[in-house]
Amino acid sequence: MKQVKKAAMYSLVGLTFLGLVGCGTANNSNSSQGGSTSSGKPVTIVVASWSGTNVTNGIIDQQLADFNKTHPGIHAVYRPISGNYETILKTEFVAGDAPDIITLNNGGQAPTFESEGAVIPLNSYIKQSNYSLSDFFSGALNMFVANGQVYGIPRDQSPLVLYYNPVMFKQAGISGPPKTWAELYADAKKLTNPAKKIYGIVQTPQEPRWAQFVYQAGGSVMNHNMTQMTLNTPAALKGFSFFVNLYRSGVAAQPQDVGATWGGQALGMGRAAMTFEGAWAIPYLQDTYPNTSFAIATLPKGPVNNVSLDFPTAWAITKDCSHPQQAWEVIQYLTGAGQAQWVEQGGLVTVRKSLIDMPYYKEHPIYENILKQLPNAVPWNFPNGFDQYVNTTLSNETLLAVDGKESPAQALQKLQSEGESILQNGGSQ
Amino acid sequence: MAAVQADSQSRSGGRFLREKGMQKWRRQETVTAYLFSLPTIILLLMFSLGPAVYAFFLSGVSWNLLDQMHWIGLHNYAAIFRMPLFWTAVKNSFIFAAVVMPVQTIIAMIFAVIMNQHLPARPLFRLAFFFPSISSSAVTSLMFMWIFNKLGLLNGFLNWFGISGPDWIGDPRFALSAIMILNIWSTSGYFMVVFLAGLQSIPQNFYEAAAIDGASAFQRFLRITVPLLRPSTFFIVVMGMIGTLQMFDQSFIISGGTGGPLNSTMTMALLIYEEIFSYGNVGYGAAITVFLFVVVLLLTLLTNRWLGKPIEY
C-alpha cells in the first residue's frame, strides 16, 4: 500500500518536471532547425528585415520563393522583425542566434554593426563570383563600405523630395513648386492659414529633415570620413537657421499641431501644402488618402545646390551565419534579378543605375522627380557610438531651437560639442 | 498502582512512538512539498532571481551588447550620477509617483465606497470601472494618444467651454500630465476592487452603532471606513508606489520610445531600456536598475512602518 502511494507520488512529481522539460525540448528543436546541416536536406537561410508595409513584405516573400525554385540546395525564408528592429537584432546577437542575412539601416546603424563585427566583410565573395559593384549608385554603396571592406550590398534607397498639394497651390495662385529657398518661404507663407489649421509646410523638426538645408548652404553635419563634426561653420548655421525660421515665422508647423504624427500624414489630411519625405510616402498617401492629390518635386535650391538626404539600406551576412556561401547566393539574387522585381512591384527606389529606365518608372511618372533627385543626394549616416546622439540629442536640440528656447547658433554649438565629445571617447562610451 | 504505572508507561511509550511517526510524516510531507514546488522554484531562479542577480553583475561592466564586456567596477554608478538625463528621469518618476499614487488611491477608495452602496445597475458600473485595468496598456495608450491629440476629443470638449486646449503630447509641459491621467484612469479600477473586498470585511454593526450615536455619513466614512480599510490601503499604496516608480509602457508608447518631447516623459524604467537597448550602455542601464531597486525597497520599508501595523479596534 505504502509503496503504491510512494510510486504514485514520484510519478506525479515526475510529471510536473516533464512539463518543464517539455518546454525545453520544444525550444531546442525549433532553434536547431535554423542551421540544420544534415546531408541531402537543403540549407536554410533566414533573411531578416524590419516588417515594412504589406508591399515590401510581399516583395521579399516573392523574391525568396522565386529563389528557392531555382536553387534546390538552399531554402531561404523571410523573417520580418516587428517592433524595434535593431534592438531585437542585438539581443539575438547576444544569444548567438542572429538570422543569416539582415538588412542594414541608415542613420548610423550600419557602422555600429560593422565596427562591432556583427556582419562579415563580403570582399572575398564579391571577388570569387565576379560580382560587379559599378552599377550601384555610389552614395548607396559607399554607406556600407568601411576601410575598403564591403559589408552590405544595397537593397533600396530613397532621397528626400518635396511633396506638395497641387490643388492648394492652384487655389493660392501659385503656378508650380518652389525652385529656390526664397520661393519656398514665399509660397509657404501664401499657403499658410492658421485659422483653418493649414500650414505651408508641416514637418517633424528633426535632423534628417534639416540636414539637407545645411548641405544646400554649402555646409555639412560631419566631414566625409565621419571623424569630425562640422556643424560650427557659417554655412551650417545658415542652413539650420533657414529651417528654424520657417517654424519661428509660422509658415511651418509640427505634425502634432495639426493632429498628425508625421509630415506625410499632414499632407494627406489636407493640413499641409508641402512636406519633405521619401518615396515611402507614395504608397501611404495613395492607400490612406486617395482623395488628396499630391505631386512630387525635386528640392528647392539653396545658396549652393539642391542636395538631398538619401536613406539607403543593404543586405548583409551576420557573423552567426554558418553557411555564408549559401547566404551570399541569396544576396546575389536579391540584389541582382530581385532588384528589377523590386522596382516592378512599386516598392522603394532602385539602387541600380541601369534600372532607372525601367518601363515601370515610365508608367508611373510620380517617381520621375525622385529619380531626378537621386544623383544629388548624401546618404544619412553616423559613426558607431552615436545612437543616443541620433535618437535623442539631435531631436531635442532641434525642438529647443524651433520652440525659440535656444537660438539656432546655440543649438548647433551644443550639437557640435556633444558630437565632438563622443568622437573623442572613441565612438562608444 | 503498579498496573497504573505500567499503563502510563506504555501510554507514554506510545506517544513517543506516535510523535516519532508524526515527525517522519512531517519530514516526508516537507520533502514532497518541496519536490512539487521545485519546478516553480527552478523557473523563479532562472527567470526572476537569476536575472536580478545578473543585473547587479552587469552594473559593473562596460558592454554595448555587441562587443566584449569588461569589468569596470563602480564606474557606471559614478557616470550615471553625473548624467543630467538620469536626474531628469529620477525627477519625472518621483513627480509621477507622487501625483498618481495618492490620486489613484483616493479615487479608488471613493469609487469603492460608492459601488458598495445599493445603487441601480451596480454590476454595470463595477464592470465599467474595472474594465480599463484589464485592457492592454498598449491599446489604452494608443486610445489616449487620440484623446490627447491637439485636435482630439479632450481639446474638442474643452473647446465647448471656450478653452483652447494645449498640445498634450507634443508639449513638454503637459506630456507627463497626460500620462498621469491615463495611468490613474487605467489603475484606479483595479484598486477599487481591492477596496471593495476590504469593505466587505468591515462589520455592518459598526456603522449602525455610529448612526445611532448620531455620526453623519461623512463622519462614518472618515472614522470607520478609512481606518478599517488600512490593510487594503497598505497593499494599494505599496503596489501603487512600485507600479508608478516603474512606469514604462505608457511613456514608451506615447513618446515612441524616446521619452520625448525634450525628455519630459523619460522615466527611470524607460531610461533603463533606452540605455541598454538603444544607446548601447548596458552597464549604465543595469546601474540605474540597481538604483531603482534600492529606492523602491527603502520606500516600501518606510510605508510598511507607517501603514503596515495591524488594526487595533
TrEMBL record, chain A:
Stored CDD domains: PBP2_UgpB
Protein keywords: Signal, Transport
Signal sequence coordinates: 1-26
GO BP field: maltodextrin transmembrane transport; maltose transport
GO MF annotations, alphabetized: maltose binding
InterPro entries in UniProt: SBP
Record bears the keyword RNA-binding: no
Entry superkingdom: Bacteria
Pfam families associated with the record: SBP_bac_1
Single GO cellular component term: ATP-binding cassette (ABC) transporter complex, substrate-binding subunit-containing
Gene3D superfamilies: Periplasmic binding protein-like II
Family statement: Belongs to the bacterial solute-binding protein 1 family.
Protein name: Carbohydrate ABC transporter substrate-binding protein, CUT1 family
Taxonomic path: Bacteria, Bacillati, Bacillota, Bacilli, Bacillales
From TrEMBL, chain B:
Family matches, as InterPro entries: ABC_transporter_permease (IPR051393), MetI-like (IPR000515), MetI-like_sf (IPR035906)
Record's subcellular location: Cell membrane
CDD domains the record matches: TM_PBP2
GO cellular component: plasma membrane
A Pfam family assignment: BPD_transp_1
Membrane-spanning ranges: 31-57, 94-115, 127-148, 174-197, 228-248, 282-302
Keyword list, A-Z: Cell membrane, Membrane, Transmembrane, Transmembrane helix, Transport
Protein's UniProt keywords contain Transport: yes
GO biological process: transmembrane transport
Membrane topology: Multi-pass membrane protein
Family note: Belongs to the binding-protein-dependent transport system permease family.
UniProt protein name: Carbohydrate ABC transporter membrane protein 1, CUT1 family
Organism expressing this protein natively: Alicyclobacillus tolerans
Taxon lineage: Bacteria, Bacillati, Bacillota, Bacilli, Bacillales
